[in-house]
Structures are given as C-alpha cells and as structure tokens.
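Q: I'm teaching a short session on how sequence maps to structure, and I want students to see two examples side by side rather than one. Could you give me a first protein with its sequence written out and its structure tokens following it? Keep the formatting plain so it prints cleanly on a handout.
A: Of course. Example one:
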Amino acid sequence: MLNVKLDEVVIRRCLEELNLELQYKRISKDDEEIILESAKCLAQTFAGVTVKGEKISEPMVQSVGMSAEDFNEFVYAYMKNIVADGFCYAVLDKKQNKVIGAFISESYNPNEESLVFTDNLEPMNKICNVLDELDERLINTIQEKTNKIVEEKQFVHMFMIGVKTDKLKKEISKDLIRICIEDAKQKGYKGIFLEATNIKSQIIFSKYFGFDLVYDSNNQHILTKYADTEHFKGISPDQSTDCRVLYKAFDEEYNI
C-alpha cells in the first residue's frame, strides 16, 4: 500500500460522506484483475464518461471517434506492455472492492520503435503520430541543450490518468501524480514528461507540480496546434488549442 498526502480536513469529510475508503496501489504484472479494471476506468474517462450530466472525454480520442470498447482494448494491451516498469497505479474503493482511478506511465525508451495499429485500433495511429513527433522534439532538445545522449531508464513518460468519481476527482488525481513523481525520483530518473492534450491537464501539472512548457533549440514551443492538423482541427478551443509537452527535471544537469 502506498503512502499518499490527500489534502486534510475537507477531504476526510468528503470520504466519510461518500462512504469511501481509498487504497492507492502500484500495479504489478500479476495484478490481472486490477489491470483489467484500470484499463476499463481509463477507457471510460478518455472515450467519454458522464459527470453531473455532462459528458467528459479526452479531445484527441474523441476527435478520432474511438469507442470506449476499442480504446479499452488499446489501454489494456499498453498496460500489459509497460506495467513491469513500475509506474502504473490504481485507486481502489476498498469498501466496494473496485477501481475508481488509474494512472499509467512508463520508463521512456528513446530507441523503441513506434507501433502501427490496424483494424479497429487504426485511429490510434493519428494520435500516436502527433505524440511521437512531440516526444522526438523533446529528446532532441534535451540532447542539444545538455550535450548528453538520452538513454533508457532516464526519463519517465506520463501517459494517462482517469478518475471515475464526481467528488475528489482533482485531489485523487493529484495524489496519483505525486506518487509517480516520488517513485521516479527515488529510482534515480533524471526527469519526467507528458503530452498535455487539454487545458485542465496543462493547468494541474504546471500549477501544482511545477512542470514547464519546453522551448526547443530554435526557441519554439514544443507543441502542436490542433488548428494546424488534419484530424484534430475540430477540437474546441474551450478544451484546448494545442497538445504540448510539459517537462520537469529532477537533476540540475537536465534543466532545459
């Protein structure tokens, strides 16, 4: 069981009112049921979940028209591939014995080839092409600015976070992020990054955890404007105008 730092009095009251008892768990490769439930949780929150009568979804997944079922298939396969890295986490409601939140990240391998998806998962290629291009720009920028070659097990790539509860959504999300950051630091990683695809994620990582927007060696932001893309130009500016890399260095030598 992982130690967490939920904000104090208000959250304790909410937990009592909601009759919740939360457990934060680092997922292992043997936790098959939790992997299945976590993938389902993430698929529902990314492909579309209704909260207080409003449907909320991740804008890129929504734009390519992936169903929750198809996205669940992708997430499950992705989790099975990365869970051994030790950066996948679940939040369980112990009283109902079910997963209500999940956060999955990986130990980034700059030499790993991108997957090509087919059939019902083909729309993921449109998303991954954008993300892969941003990641490549980040790695090139780190190497150019630090004069160091980026290797395996130096950076953690945060990928997906989803919480299925109306109340405490932000607080639980913050705890999951905090756990991942502390794990990465303790394991000696040089830094951590993500592609923030919507305004809410951009704010939470920047405001609460000190992640920065990255400038490349040409002093250009490492981001993709949705309006300039073929597949994502329909995303509402209310959700976001861009997908951007956010980065946090743990080692001063990797401040960029």
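Q: Perfect. Now a second example for contrast.
A: Example two:
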Amino acid sequence: MTNIPAAEDAWANDTDPEKAPDKDAAETGAQSVPAPVPAPAQASKETGEDGPGFLLSTADVVALINDRTAEQLSVSTFRTLVSHDQAPQPLSWGKTPVWAFATVEDWISEMFASGSFTMPEPDTDGEEEPGEEAKEPELIFGSTAQWVETFLAPMYRRDIAPNGAGALVWCPSWWMHSEAVIRLEALWRAWEHLRLDGKTGVSVFMKDHLDHHMAVLMDGKGPFDGCSMDLGHKPEHEGLRPLPVVPAPAELFPDVRTANTETKDDNDE
C-alpha cells in the first residue's frame, strides 16, 4: 500500500481549498495564502503537455464521478478508495490534494470496463413509455349545450332589445341555427383547451375566440337576424336564406378522398 504523507491534514483542508486555515497564519495574524501546486518537470503523461493539465479537487473528482456513473459516491468513499490504492493518487497532497482531469477520466473508463461502475439510468421523467398515448384531459362540460347554458349564458350578459330591434340580437333557440351550433361548438372546445393554460389561456380565449364569435352571432345582420328575446326563434324559411350556389364542374374539383385511395392502392402494389 502506498504511503500517503500527511493524508489526514490534506483531507481536512480539501473541502474548500481557498478557505483552508493556515496554522502559522492564525498564530501570527498574517493572511493565509494557498500553497502553489508544483508542476512535474517532465511532460505530463496524461496530457502530453508541459504540465498536469486541468486540475480537480476532491469535490470536483466526486462530482465528475457522480455525473458520469450511477454509483453516486460520497467524498468519504472516494477518500477510502484513494487510501487503499483503489483510485488514482493525487498529483500533490500539499494543503489540498489535486488530480489531473485526464487521469480521473482514464480511471473512470477502467472502472466501467471492469464493471465496478455502471452507466446512470436515462432520465425519463415526463416522457411517454413506448406505445403509451398521452391521456386527454377530462372535459369540464359534456356538450356544447351544457357549456352554453351553464357557463356562457350566465357569464356573457348584454343589453339586448326584447323585440330584436336593437344592435344586438340573440335567439334563445340558438341550437336551431346551424351556424350558431358550429361557432358555439368551436367556442366550447377552445375554452376546454385554453383553460389548461394557467397563464394567458383565459385571456387568449376571450380576445381571440369569444369576442370574435359572439360579435358575429349577435350582430343584427348575423345568423339570429329576425329572432328576438321575447318572440324567440324565427323559422329559417322566414328568415335568412342559404347562399345561392351554382354547382361547379366536377373536373375542377376532383374528390380527393378517391384520389388518396387510388394512390394508396398503387403504393401497396
């Protein structure tokens, strides 16, 4: 076993090299100055340069080991390994033991090769297991109608003329208007999604979704034109008519579903 001079004193000062107390300085009142680490006279075997290269303290060595391996050694455990010649000896004991970075890396590689060290487990926190689909967040409301009746109507209050003569109109039987159903369905889905954003989700919903769709729905020339709060829904045949459409030539707009199916069949062949 290698004789380690003054090992106990060196380990005692290793926790913080810059703050290690100097006995003589304490007695004389002089400021403590850390002793310089002597560099080898010949070129370093670890780096091939004119010195030991990057130096590590005990704490640095342990941090490097714990970063590269799954063992998670303590400083005291590493000291024991060094004392029993099972880890590299420091370049210099002095006031604080130091090791060459390349020497420590070579030793870690040797420990991996011998099976003494093992690779750390990959961090899988927040990652999905293969084949496992992310769970959809549970909906607060079960349907568009429930969202409108329970959330929207009590919350979104406006001064609406009862006879439909004002600037704003609303149809109590909104579900009889196809455009209203589509817009309110979109609003409900957007609300369910954006409520999960605890920072700006509600603001985005109000500004980009609710304000836009409700302005269109409640406009006097919108889908509720002819309906009123007191008289209720006006049958569609007495109100707004569908937009007139002249059928387009089929060759201008081929059915993409058929085209995709034919392409898939060709690829399978």
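Q: What should students look for in example two?
A: Point them to this: The first helix runs from residue 7 to 12. Also worth mentioning: The first strand starts at residue 55 and ends at 56.
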